[in-house]
Design brief:
By secondary structure, the chain is of the alpha+beta class. The protein has helices at 2-26, 30-61, 64-76, 80-90, 95-134, 147-201, 207-236, 251-261, 263-266, 287-304, 335-338, 362-372, and strands spanning 247-250, 272-276, 282-285, 310-318, 321-328, 376-381, 386-393. The protein has 3 domains: 2-138, no CATH class; 170-236, Signal transduction histidine kinase, dimerisation/phosphotransfer (DHp) domain (Helix Hairpins); 247-393, Heat Shock Protein 90.
Length: 394
C-alpha cells in the first residue's frame, strides 16, 4: 500500500509539474503584466498625492496669498489695497479653476511620460523586427519583461537563417549537378559522334566490328538520354503540382513486377530482390506515382548494396497503415547525412560515379509523393544494413 502511495505521489508530482510548465508557457506575459501593474499603481498613487498637495498649496495652505500681495507691491509698486484687490479677483475668487488647470497640466505631463515609458516596449519589438528584416547576425535582445517575445523573435530569426542556408545549399547543389551533368553529356556525345564517324568512314567494316561499334554507340546514346531526362527533372521538379489519381493497388503484384524489371541491373553483380508481401494486400493510392517512389528507393538500394547480396522488400498491415520496407546490405549511411538524404539535389556519394550518378532528385521526389498520400518515408542505417520505410494510409 505504501508503495502504491509513493508511486501515486511521484506521478501526481509529475502531473503537477507538467501542468505548471504548461501554465508557465501560457502565461508568457506575466512579467510584463506585473511590471505594468506596479507602474500604473505607482502612477495612480503619485497622481493622488500630487493632486492633494497642489490643492493644499493653492488653497493657501502655505499662505501664498500674502506672498502674491507682497510680490505685486514690490514689482509693480502698487499700494497694499490695490495688490489685495488684484489678488482677490485674479487668484482668490478663481482658486478652484486655477487648481483644476494646474492639476490638468500636471496630469498631461505625467500621462506623456507614462506613455513614453510604455511605448518603449513597442520600440524594442520594432527594432527586433528590423533586425529580422536586415538579416543581422546579432542576437535580438529585449527588456527582461519581454523575454517571451525575445525568445520567439530569435526562434524566427534562427528558422529564417536555416531556411536561407538550406535554400542556398540546394541552389549550390543544383548548380553543381548542372555542371556535372553538362560535363557527363559531353562524354557520351563525343563517343557517339566518334563511333558514328568510324562507321561512316569504313562502310566495308567487318560485321563483328560494326556490331561492336553499334552496340557501344547505342549504349552511349541511352546514357545520353538518361542524362537529358535528369535535366528535365531538375527544371520540372519545382514546377510540377502533384495531382493524385487514386485506385486500388495490388501491392504484391506491383512490387514483383518492379523486381522483374530490375533483373538486368542485378544480374551482373550477382544481386537479388526478395519480395515478401502477403497475397491480397491492397493499397489505395496513385499507382503510377507510388511506382515511382518504389522505383527510386530500389535504384538507391541497388546502387549502394554489396555485390552478391539480397535486397529485401517487405510489406504488411500495421493498424490503419500499410508499411513497406526496403532493406539492403552495404556501407551504412553516416548519421549526419540521414537528415539530408531526402533534400533536393542531395547525393550520398560526394565522389560521384558517372554510371550511378543521378541528379539527386529521386528520394526528394519520393518524399513529395508519399507526403501527398498523407504518408511518411524514413531511413535507418547501421553497419549491417540500410532500411527505407514507407508508411501509407490503407
Amino acid at each position: 500500500m505504501r508503495k502504491i502511495l509513493n508511486i501515486s505521489k511521484r506521478y501526481g508530482g509529475l502531473v503537477i509539474k507538467l501542468k505548471s510548465d504548461r501554465d508557465k508557457r501560457n502565461n508568457d506575459y506575466t512579467k510584463l503584466k506585473r511590471k505594468v501593474f506596479i507602474r500604473v499603481l505607482l502612477i495612480v498613487f503619485a497622481t493622488i498625492a500630487t493632486v492633494i498637495f497642489l490643492r493644499d498649496v493653492i488653497q493657501d495652505n502655505f499662505n501664498i496669498g500674502e506672498s502674491i500681495v507682497e510680490f505685486l507691491k514690490n514689482k509693480f509698486y502698487l499700494s497694499e489695497s490695490d495688490a489685495v484687490i488684484i489678488y482677490r479677483y485674479t487668484f482668490l475668487y478663481n482658486k478652484d479653476i486655477i487648481t483644476l488647470i494646474v492639476i490638468i497640466i500636471f496630469l498631461v505631463i505625467l500621462l506623456r511620460f507614462s506613455i513614453s515609458w510604455f511605448t518603449k516596449y513597442f520600440d524594442e519589438v520594432s527594432n527586433g523586427m528590423d533586425k529580422l528584416v536586415e538579416e543581422s547576425d546579432n542576437e535580438i535582445t529585449l527588456s527582461p519583461e519581454l523575454d517571451f517575445m525575445e525568445i520567439k523573435l530569435n526562434q524566427i530569426k534562427n528558422n529564417l537563417e536555416k531556411q536561407k542556408k538550406a535554400a542556398l545549399d540546394a541552389e549550390q547543389r543544383k548548380n553543381d549537378l548542372v555542371v556535372y551533368l553538362a560535363h557527363d553529356i559531353k562524354t557520351p556525345l563525343t563517343s557517339v559522334i566518334g563511333y558514328l564517324n568510324l562507321l561512316d568512314e569504313a562502310p566495308d567494316m567487318p560485321p563483328e566490328q560494326k556490331a561492336k561499334y553499334v552496340g557501344i554507340t547505342l549504349e552511349k546514346a541511352y546514357r545520353l538520354e538518361q542524362l537529358i531526362n535528369e535535366f528535365f527533372e531538375i527544371t520540372r521538379f519545382n514546377l510540377q503540382t502533384i495531382v493524385l489519381n487514386k485506385e486500388k493497388i495490388n501491392l504484391l503484384f506491383m512490387l514483383q513486377q518492379m523486381a522483374d524489371e530490375f533483373y538486368p541491373m542485378l544480374t551482373p553483380q550477382g544481386k537479388q530482390i526478395s519480395v515478401n508481401v502477403p497475397d491480397g494486400l491492397t493499397l489505395w493510392g496513385d499507382a503510377d506515382k507510388l511506382a515511382r517512389v518504389f522505383n527510386n528507393i530500389l535504384k538507391n538500394a541497388i546502387a549502394y548494396s554489396d555485390e552478391n547480396s539480397v535486397i529485401d522488400i517487405s510489406a504488411g498491415q500495421q493498424d490503419k497503415n500499410i508499411v513497406i520496407t526496403f532493406m539492403n546490405q552495404g556501407n551504412p549511411i553516416p548519421q549526419a547525412k540521414l537528415d539530408t538524404i531526402f533534400e533536393k539535389f542531395y547525393r550520398l556519394d560526394s565522389a560521384r560515379s558517372t554510371n550511378t550518378g543521378g541528379a539527386g532528385l529521386g528520394l526528394a521526389i519520393a518524399q513529395e509523393i508519399v507526403t501527398a498520400h498523407n504518408g511518411t518515408i524514413s531511413v535507418e542505417s547501421n553497419p549491417e544494413n540500410t532500411t527505407f520505410t514507407v508508411k501509407l494510409p490503407s
